[in-house]
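I'll show a sample.
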Amino acid sequence: MANSHPAAHSRRILWKSQGTPDNHTDDDVFLRELRTNVNLRTYRFSEAVTGSAVLIQQICLVVLFTTIYAFMLEGRLSAWEVITGFSVTLVALHLVYRSLTQDHLAPSRKELHTFLVIYGFAFGISPILSTLTKSVSTDTIYSMVAGMLLANLAVHDYGPRAMVVSQAFSLNAAFAAAVCLASRLSSPLDAFALIIAAAGIFGLWPPMRSAVKEKRPRHFVWIAPALVLADFLLIAVISRFFAVLFVLFLAGIGLLCPALFVYLQRYKTTIHGPWDEAVIAPFDPTSTTPPPVGGTDDGPTPL
C-alpha cells in the first residue's frame, strides 16, 4: 500500500517503489516544470492571406457556376457558347496541368477515355436531367441548391487536415446542385452545357489548383484576384450593387479575417508540464533528431 507521506524528491520511475502513487509529482517541482508556448507556430499576415486564397477561389468558382446558370436562364449565354468555351478551357487547363505534373503534354488513353465518358454520359442523360425535377417548385430547387453549394464549401479540401474534409462529398454536392439547376433550363442541350460547366469548375479545377500551388506558388497568389475580377464583371452585368457587395465580402475574408487572425495570435497560450499525457511516437531508426522538448502547440511531447 502506498505511503501517504511522499518521499522527498520522488523520481519519475516505475520499476522502483517510492511510497508514492505512480502519477505523483513533488509540490516544489510541479510548477517549476511549467512551460508556456513551447514550439508555438505563429503566422505572418502574408501567410494568412495566402491561406485564405484557397477559400476565396472556391467561393469564386461557386459564384461563377451560379452566374453561368443565370446567364443561360436569361438567354445571355447559349448552350453552344458554354460548351465551346468550357471545352477549350478544359483542354488548355489540362495541358497546363500535365506540364506541371508530367514530362510530356500528350494525354494518355485513360485521360481521353475519361473525357469521352464524361461528355458521352452527360449528353446521354441530359434529356432526363432537363425534366428530372420539373414537378418540384423552383423555390424548393433553389433552396436545395443553396444548401448543396454551401455543403460544397464547408467540406471542400482546402489543404489543412480536418474531420469534416471530404473531397468526394464536396464534388457530389456540387454535381447534385448542377442536376437540380439543369431542370430549370429550357432544353436538354442547355442541361448538357451546365453539366459540362460543373465538370470543369468543380471536377478539374481542384487538382489543377493543387498542382499550381505546389509547382508555381508565385503564380498561385494571382489566381484569386483574377477570379474575383472575373466574377465581379459577370455579376455587374446582373446587378452592380451585388457586384460591389461581393467584392467587399471577399475583401473581408481575404484581408480582414487574416489581419484579425494575426492580431489574436498574441493571446494564444499553450502550457506544458508534468501533467501532459505521454504519447508513444513511432520509432524511426534512421532519424537522429530527438522529438521537441516540452511538446508542441498540438499536444505534449511524444515518448
Observations:
- Strands lie at 35-36, 271-272.
- The mean pLDDT is 82.
- Residues 45-74 form the longest helix (30 residues).
- The chain is about 60% helix and 0% strand.
